[in-house]
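Q: What would this chain look like folded?
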Amino acid sequence: MTIKYEKIKHYIEEENDKECKLETLKEDYVDTHQNLDLRCKCGNPFTASYHIVKGKNKLQCNDCSFKISGAKQRKDGQEIYNYFINKNLIPQFKISEYTGAHQSLPYICKEHMDKGIQKISYSNLKSGQLCKYCNIDKNRIELRLKYKVIVEDVGLIFDGLLFINNKTKIQFTCPNHTNEGTQTMEQSNFNVGQRCKYCGHEHVANIKRKNGKDVIGCFINNGFTPLFNKDDYINNSQKLPCICNNHKDIGIIYPTYADVNSGKGCMACGKDKISGENHYLWKGGISPLHNYLRYKINDWKRDSLKKYNYCCGVIGVKSNDLIVHHMYGFNMILDETLLELNIDVRGQVNMYSDEELQQIETLLIEKHYEYGLGIPILSNIHDLYHKVYGRGNNTNEEFETFKEDYINGKYKDLEEVG
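A: My prediction, written as structure tokens:
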């Protein structure tokens, strides 16, 4: 239904006290959907359909609309002044100086008067922001509550937080080591899984510790008669009584398990191991060949480095100090190579013919690629791995366990000791 021109003109010019004028002529009027030519009381022309005029009371130009809207939203200086006071702030501005919600206004916080004058806009204050130092206190309280729950959930006793040099440090007591008192740890280290350092020492010790039965077997296999029981063994630096089978005349001696396991014996045995096959580094003639072949797998090493983009396979850091770790031990690959070629172990490399060396080198390289590329590891992490798991006969399962434990921070204390 079309509304008559006269009715529209009456509504615009007489029913509303807006001093707005309709300038569209009657002969140009079509229907209520067309844009009408209007003139605001300020003198500016503007256009709007009758539906907009009636529905949104559009009886002024955009400039006047913005002014009216701003006036409705704008707070007066007294109201803002009182709002600051209600927020426990002492205004340092005059009521007449307030111009808008985004204006930075000076104030003093009653809780932090020693910090002097600060500034904040009304809009930021209304959105929940506080004095800078109140915000810091609020965040610290929330952080303490958060870490109290986290620390107690992992079975530790929460003793509080320290905020030093922009670093947050967690204080806690381990129920298993209460005699050690409060421990302090950076938040970042705690978040990656580090916990009580004394529990860490015990964990590493348990990984490395052999049971007494295995220790006795090691002594026997290395030519000693143990004079201790399996329950007497505590750790690998403990001196254990035994008799050297090759030098029974010197009586009881007290080597450690670490010494015996590494091939060291009594002093008399040491004197016997001075040259040739009796030298303490002799390994059945495999060492010279082993060392010679280490330089023949450089292509395999380069391919391994490229696969990992020259980054450490444990922590992902790019470095020039990388060692390519065998996921399947080099010694095991060499043993299989010699066995498959039916070539025996000899004392020196020159005891093999050129043809035999070429066969060994070719098959050794093939087997390296069959077992897969190695993993580049930072040299210090590589040394730590072998410190924990020993050298030779290492497996993929050992490495994956080590990687998970290292990322979780279980070797942090062992690294520091090393």
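DSSP finds 18 helices and 14 strands in the chain.
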